[in-house]
Amino acid sequence: MSLGTESIAVHGISESRYGADAGASATLNLSNTARLYLNYDGKFRAVMQSHQGTVGVELRW
Question: CA-CA distance, 6 to 12, in Å (whole number)?
Fold first, then answer.
C-alpha cells in the first residue's frame, strides 16, 4: 500500500496449498464399568504443525 512517500507492508499467515489432516481414536474396554481411550488429531503444513492428544480413563459405578 502506498501513502505518498510513506508505505505500509502487511504480512499475514497463509497455509500452503498442500498439507495433511489426521485423526485417530482408540478405546479399550476393560470391563462393563471401565475403559481406556486415546485420541489424536494432527494438522501438517509446509510451514505450520499442530498436534493434539488426549489419554483418559473412564470409570462407571
Answer: 20
pLDDT tens, residue by residue, 44-57: 776 677 888 999 99
CA gyration radius, the chain: 22
Beta bridge partners of 50: 43
Using the structure block, give the residue that is written with the C-alpha cell 483418559: 56
Query: What's the CA gap between 29 and 60, in Å, rounded?
Result: 12
d(CA 38, CA 40) in angstroms, rounded, equals: 7
DSSP letter string, 6-55:
EE---------S-EEEEEEEEEEE-SSSEEEEEEEEEEEESS-EEEEEEE
Question: The C-alpha cell of 20 is what?
Answer: 495433511
DSSP, res 60: -
Q: What is the pTM of this model?
A: 0.55
